[in-house]
Fold this protein.
Amino acid sequence: MIKKRIIFSLLYQDGFFYLSRNFKLQKVGDVNWLINNFGFGETCNYIDELICLHVKKKPTNKDKENVFKDIAILRKKIFVPITLGGGVRTLMDVNNFFLNGADKILLNTSIYDKKLMQEISEIYGEQAISIMIDYMRSENNDINDIYINCGTEYKTNLKSFFDSYYENIPCGEIILNSIEDDGTGNGLDLKVIEKIPKSLNNKSLLLMGGAGKAEHIVDGLSFKNISGIVTANLFNFLGTGLEVSRKKSLDNKINLVNFDTEIKI
Amino acid sequence: MNLKKKIGIIDYGAGNLASIYNALNFLEFNVKIISNPDEIKDYSHLILPGVGSFGKLANNLRSKNWPEKIELYIKNGNFIFGICIGMQLLFEKSEEDKNANGLSLIKGEFQKFDKKFNLPIPHMGFNEVSYTDSPIWKGIKNNSPFYFVHSYRIENTRDESLKSKTIYGEKFISFIEKGNIFGSQFHPEKSHNCGLKLLKNFTELKN
């Protein structure tokens, strides 16, 4: 009944989009490059949603304005739901993202700020909140450590997160982002799935990090409790990558919506 | 009359006007955002957008005398398209705010989704629309996906109209057409090419 999703994520700072590998950034091109060279408007016909993350550490107000300028350019070409986030610390940051076209807000470091999370939830509703958990496998492979501040600061581990924090964090969906698999294209971390509580009270669980080809996306979506896969891999998934991933998933009877891309407008 | 082809978006305090503006602009229409009800006589096609709450937006409409102007506009054979709360406002009432009155162009009242289906509320994401065919659906396959975000829905109406339905635990009206009045519970401006096509078809309707 509830459809699964393939979501594309863009990483942005200082006027350019970036590729990330294990959270190290590599510049690829600006907004016009994205639209023209990669036919991004076309590509977006194969995704359910778009995420755009401002990855700059300690952004100034000028930096934030620049993000919105480029998002405004994207929004003239792309007609899909958009989740925005990155560096959200205050309610004003949140309001600005919504004023500039966010359908949902993505939070990571600030999810432990109870007051802020309550305020966002009261104003926008928890369905408009998407939380991202950046994690790494520790030496003891059974435990996954959770990091905040762009993966630089240890916060807690995955088990404690679901035991102690999760219940008090209003959100509509949870994205588990594997730092070690980020940008590798070697496949998603499917082992993490068994470490997640069976019931997340009607919230969606999504995986991110490591998807490098269509089969990886199919593998992830095949799990009953996985609602979506997020990929930020510009080189693997622009061109026909997302189209093929979508088709393979549908061929494998995964419950995705089938967009009519042949439609003439 | 219908050569004017100026598309107006009603600005009455609903959020996210830019998305629908961008979509119509992308389709290369001459689109304007209108905040003065007296201006609507210059338009043949109006969009009543809607991100917000029923009560607040219903009151916003009334405080600026939009209802009278919209009624006259429709009597003159012009077209209106309500989106999300904009669709709900074409009806009489919503459980979301029982004291507020919609435009009452179509009979019926919205209720919150039934909890017994144990599905997340709001209904959020792409879902399929099974349509009752008419020119506004031209070139769109039946059961195409559209993007929804809403907690209130209407199951049926006594009004004679063309209804399209979507299933989310229960069946509800996701699109309605009554003469020159149209409403979608989903957001065509967030629904890829199918949404753009629907908007384009709307703007091409002639009286």
Notes: Chain B has five helices and twelve strands. The longest strand of chain B covers residues 170-178.
